[in-house]
Structure formats: C-alpha cells, structure tokens
C-alpha cells in the first residue's frame, strides 16, 4: 500500500510539479476557448449551408461535414503539423491544434445545430415572416434561439468532448496539461504528476458534466 501511495499519490512530487502543470492547464484552457468558440461559430455556418435550398451552397457543406466527421482528429493534427511543411506551409503547434480540432469539431457542431433547426416547426418560420421580419431576422430572433434550446444538452456534451480532445495536442509536443504532466513523470520517474493532471481535468470537466445532466433532466421532464 505504501508503495502504491508513493508511486501515484506522492504529495511532495505533486507539490513540486504543481506550477508546471498549472502552466499546462492554462495552455489547455486557451486551446479550449479558441477551439470551442470557433467551432460553435463555424458549425453554425456549416449547418445553415447544409439546409440551404441552393445546391452550390448545400453540397460543399455536406461534403465538409461528412469528410471531417470521418477523419480521426489525430490524423488531421499530424497531417497539418507534420505533413503541410512538405508543401511549404509550416504552422506553430498551437495553430495546428486549433485548425485540426476546428475542422473536426465544427462538423460535429454543425450536425447538432442542423438537428436543432430542423426541430423548429415550419409554422414558426411562417408566423414570424408574416409579421414583416426578413428571413435573416426570423432566423436570428425566432428560430435560432429555439433550435439552440432544443439541442443545448448535445452542444454541451460535444463541448465536454472538445476539452478532452485537447489532450491529443501532447502528440506534437505542445505544452498543454497532459504533455506537462508526462514531462514531469519522465523527470521524477513517478506517476503522481499524471494523477494530478487527471484531477485537473476532473475539476475542469465535472461542472460541465453536471450541467449537461441538469439540462437533460429538464428536457426529459
């Protein structure tokens, strides 16, 4: 038991590596903010394109959604960071992560938005339009708020997955939380930094998980 505690819950080592992991946590938070905000906005535009009556708008967005939902995010990340330099395009690790995860997550957000927009009855569009509102105003003030409310648990669930996905950034040596913890492990020859990183993720994600459960129960009721 003492050996187990020393290897996984060594408080002295956790205290020593805490500042390093805190820096990694801040990088993870910055990644999450960039990827989630861009993904939410990009996903909305892709969803609107999917529902467009114009084929030249609809088909490219449909292909975009299918392709980037099918490709593993790790493959996208390695291709952007390690493959594009062969074409003379070199990006920083942070930019590579943001682009790769944006492409992947905006396609998932798009499907969630699309489901929400479809769930709004056609009569809502017609009733709002009959008041003199333009199509864009109907979408902004009437349809979109209802659509987001209908799929809010799914949007939050996808956001939780995005936060967990940022741990893949350690593959290209971006100093986010998991990479920092693994570097600390390699120096200390102890698993306690990884346990501390897991606790950080738990503190970061647990409120979101509870929020998802709360909205799911409200919608079910």
TrEMBL record:
<comment type="similarity">
    <text>Belongs to the binding-protein-dependent transport system permease family. HisMQ subfamily.</text>
</comment>
<keyword id="KW-0812">Transmembrane</keyword>
<comment type="function">
    <text>Part of the binding-protein-dependent transport system for glutamine; probably responsible for the translocation of the substrate across the membrane.</text>
</comment>
<keyword id="KW-0029">Amino-acid transport</keyword>
<protein>
    <submittedName>
        <fullName>Amino acid ABC transporter permease</fullName>
    </submittedName>
</protein>
<dbReference type="InterPro" id="IPR000515">
    <property type="entry name" value="MetI-like"/>
</dbReference>
<dbReference type="GO" id="GO:0043190">
    <property type="term" value="C:ATP-binding cassette (ABC) transporter complex"/>
</dbReference>
<feature type="domain" description="ABC transmembrane type-1">
    <location>
        <begin position="25"/>
        <end position="213"/>
    </location>
</feature>
<dbReference type="GO" id="GO:0006865">
    <property type="term" value="P:amino acid transport"/>
</dbReference>
<dbReference type="InterPro" id="IPR010065">
    <property type="entry name" value="AA_ABC_transptr_permease_3TM"/>
</dbReference>
<feature type="transmembrane region" description="Helical">
    <location>
        <begin position="187"/>
        <end position="209"/>
    </location>
</feature>
<dbReference type="GO" id="GO:0022857">
    <property type="term" value="F:transmembrane transporter activity"/>
</dbReference>
<feature type="transmembrane region" description="Helical">
    <location>
        <begin position="24"/>
        <end position="48"/>
    </location>
</feature>
<dbReference type="Pfam" id="PF00528">
    <property type="entry name" value="BPD_transp_1"/>
</dbReference>
<keyword id="KW-0472">Membrane</keyword>
<dbReference type="InterPro" id="IPR043429">
    <property type="entry name" value="ArtM/GltK/GlnP/TcyL/YhdX-like"/>
</dbReference>
<keyword id="KW-1133">Transmembrane helix</keyword>
<dbReference type="InterPro" id="IPR035906">
    <property type="entry name" value="MetI-like_sf"/>
</dbReference>
<keyword id="KW-0813">Transport</keyword>
<feature type="transmembrane region" description="Helical">
    <location>
        <begin position="74"/>
        <end position="103"/>
    </location>
</feature>
<keyword id="KW-1003">Cell membrane</keyword>
């Amino acid at each position: 038991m003492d050996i187990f505690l020393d290897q996984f819950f060594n408080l002295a080592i956790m205290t020593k590596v805490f500042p390093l992991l805190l820096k990694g946590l801040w990088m993870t938070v910055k990644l999450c903010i960039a990827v989630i905000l861009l993904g939410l906005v990009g996903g909305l535009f892709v969803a609107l394109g999917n529902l467009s009556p114009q084929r030249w708008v609809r088909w490219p967005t449909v292909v975009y959604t299918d392709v980037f939902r099918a490709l593993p995010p790790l493959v996208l990340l390695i291709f952007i960071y390690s493959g594009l330099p062969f074409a003379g395009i070199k990006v920083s690790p942070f930019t590579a992560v943001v682009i790769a995860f944006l492409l992947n997550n905006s396609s998932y957000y798009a499907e969630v938005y699309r489901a929400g927009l479809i769930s709004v009855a056609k009569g809502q569009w017609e009733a709002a339009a009959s008041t003199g509102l333009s199509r864009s105003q109907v979408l902004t003030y009437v349809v979109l708020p209802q659509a987001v409310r209908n799929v809010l648990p799914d949007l939050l669930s996808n956001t939780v997955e995005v936060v967990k996905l940022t741990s893949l950034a350690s593959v290209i040596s971006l100093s986010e939380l998991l990479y920092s913890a693994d570097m600390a492990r390699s120096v200390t020859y102890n698993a306690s930094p990884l346990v501390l990183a897991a606790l950080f993720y738990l503190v970061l994600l647990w409120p979101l998980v509870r929020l998802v459960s709360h909205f799911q129960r409200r919608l079910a009721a």
